């Protein structure tokens, strides 16, 4: 019945109806999402995945999702397509100074204290699922401001994500002016500038700030990864929420290998960890201190 309606429509308009994602194929693709990024997709996400992956069918030259799945399962297809697949399925919503209480907590005095507590006497911050960079640049602004432009203590922010597409956006660091409205006025004035020769509809981050922001691709699911430094502060916000609870604890345990004792871990507002035996002390809503 549905098929004949589609055939009738195709005959009448000449247009080929878009491929649809059936439930068995969806479940197998969802398993691949889980394996590659740890993200759980319930059956309710079928239409979302269908919409996000549709353009990949044309990109790899197949007509339907079954063929796309077969392509992804073949070793050569997987090697060629897995990154683009991952880039399509992740949720990248973010904003400057998102969840303001976390930034309120990181006063200049607190940042100075954190810098002094580390062996290097420098402030090392990691945005561990940085999306397009708004979190990392918000942190860079407060670090640079508190350090008097690096005169009081050196600082760096490491921005990592699983998505190469997002890391490209971090590198470009160009944002709609509208999206920068949550940046406090003084920091906005000091660290952002027009990206397009004065029209000011799109803004970019000043080079002196970008110089201290390092980028890297890290999949938090991997057993081993190297953010490059022992951190004083780790932001891992609004990514654990997509993982199974047991995986969340494993991921946090691995993050802690890169946080010094006394360093701070920030999780997203919906990501508090309940029962665990990690060396963490809750000091404020979703702000934890590594105890040992
Ligand atoms: C909703 S955004 C959160 C961005 C930012 N932390 C914030 O709170 O605004 C989630 C980010 O996590 C990234 N992500 C998803 N799975 C990941 C994984 N296994 N490892 C690293 N990053 C991952 C996505 O690419 C996406 O950019």
Automatic annotation (TrEMBL):
Role: Methylation of the membrane-bound methyl-accepting chemotaxis proteins (MCP) to form gamma-glutamyl methyl ester residues in MCP.
Matches recorded under SMART domains: MeTrc (SM00138)
InterPro entries assigned to the protein according to its UniProt record, in alphabetical order: Bact_Chemotaxis_MeTrfase, Chemotaxis_MeTrfase_CheR, CheR_C, CheR_MeTrfase, CheR_N, CheR_N_sf, SAM-dependent_MTases_sf
Coiled coil location: none
Catalytic reaction equation(s): L-glutamyl-[protein] + S-adenosyl-L-methionine = [protein]-L-glutamate 5-O-methyl ester + S-adenosyl-L-homocysteine
Annotated CheR-type methyltransferase domain residues: 26-273
GO biological process entries: methylation
Species assigned in the record: Aureimonas flava
Keyword terms of this UniProt record: Methyltransferase, S-adenosyl-L-methionine, Transferase
Matching SUPFAM superfamilies: Chemotaxis receptor methyltransferase CheR, N-terminal domain, S-adenosyl-L-methionine-dependent methyltransferases
Transferase among keywords: yes
UniProt GO molecular function: protein-glutamate O-methyltransferase activity
Binding site for S-adenosyl-L-methionine: 92, 94, 98, 135, 161, 219-220, 237-238
Protein name as it appears in the record: Chemotaxis protein methyltransferase
This enzyme's EC code(s): 2.1.1.80
Lineage per the UniProt record: Bacteria, Pseudomonadati, Pseudomonadota, Alphaproteobacteria, Hyphomicrobiales
